[in-house]
């Protein structure tokens, strides 16, 4: 009986491992509730993005410099995102005093990032993912309908598309905390774009992440 239980446990472990390996996080889904974000304990992908001045930005190299709070937002056209960017600005000094750097990624072009940073008076760095490398590699990518894309355009927004894809793609808003080894220490992603993590909760998570090291 004991041997049977051991074999059953090993079989379940093998199936779970297979499922984890088979999971394609980079697939762009049609429903934000179906995304499969990177989780705690996983590593940051090795990707090149772009800074707000259009220069190549190596995400892994940047994270290796110091503990990092990384925010994913939909774009400067999104009022919920803009509200969050401003709220996070309020704890930027606290995060900096803890030793963190704060980064925010969106599919916006570098020029759009500059406008957002100026309009919202942000002191932290905004990163362009207009090629959707981070959005897909972090498992946050989902398609939006043409009707919704038209609404975004009607308020002056612009979305991005993957090469060969006929649908526009957005990231599910998310927040990650990384150590300098590039490992995720905390993650929050919510398919409901109207619900964002509270700054005070993020600050608490950042403190706890340091305590766990």
From TrEMBL:
Residues 1-22 form the signal peptide. It is an enzyme of class 1 (oxidoreductase). Residues 38-211 form the Thioredoxin domain. One of its GO terms (molecular function) is thioredoxin peroxidase activity. It catalyses: a hydroperoxide + [thioredoxin]-dithiol = an alcohol + [thioredoxin]-disulfide + H2O. GO terms for biological process: cell redox homeostasis; cellular response to oxidative stress. Its EC number is 1.11.1.24. One of its GO terms (cellular component) is cytoplasm. The keyword Signal applies. Keywords: Antioxidant, Disulfide bond, Oxidoreductase, Peroxidase, Redox-active center, Signal. InterPro entries: AhpC/TSA, Peroxiredoxin_BCP/PrxQ, Thioredoxin-like_sf, Thioredoxin_domain. The keyword Signal applies. Belongs to the peroxiredoxin family. BCP/PrxQ subfamily. Thiol-specific peroxidase that catalyzes the reduction of hydrogen peroxide and organic hydroperoxides to water and alcohols, respectively. Plays a role in cell protection against oxidative stress by detoxifying peroxides and as sensor of hydrogen peroxide-mediated signaling events. This is thioredoxin-dependent peroxiredoxin. It comes from Kangiella geojedonensis.
């Amino acid at each position: 009986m004991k041997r049977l239980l051991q074999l059953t446990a090993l079989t379940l472990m093998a199936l779970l491992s297979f499922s984890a390996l088979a999971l394609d996080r980079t697939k762009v889904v049609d429903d934000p509730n179906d995304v499969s974000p990177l989780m705690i304990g996983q590593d940051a992908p090795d990707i090149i993005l772009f800074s707000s001045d259009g220069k190549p930005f190596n995400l892994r190299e940047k994270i290796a410099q110091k503990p990092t709070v990384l925010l994913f937002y939909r774009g400067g056209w999104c009022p919920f995102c803009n509200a969050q960017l401003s709220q996070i600005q309020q704890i930027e000094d606290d995060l900096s005093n803890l030793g963190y750097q704060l980064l925010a990624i969106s599919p916006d072009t570098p020029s759009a990032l500059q406008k957002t940073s100026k309009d919202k008076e942000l002191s932290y760095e905004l990163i362009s993912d207009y090629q959707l490398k981070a959005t897909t590699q972090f498992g946050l990518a989902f398609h939006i309908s043409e009707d919704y894309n038209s609404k975004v355009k009607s308020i002056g927004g612009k979305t991005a598309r993957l090469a060969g894809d006929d649908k526009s793609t957005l990231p599910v808003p998310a927040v990650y905390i990384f150590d300098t080894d590039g490992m995720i220490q905390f993650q929050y992603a919510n398919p409901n774009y109207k619900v964002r993590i509270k700054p005070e909760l993020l600050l608490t998570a950042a403190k706890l992440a340091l305590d766990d090291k």
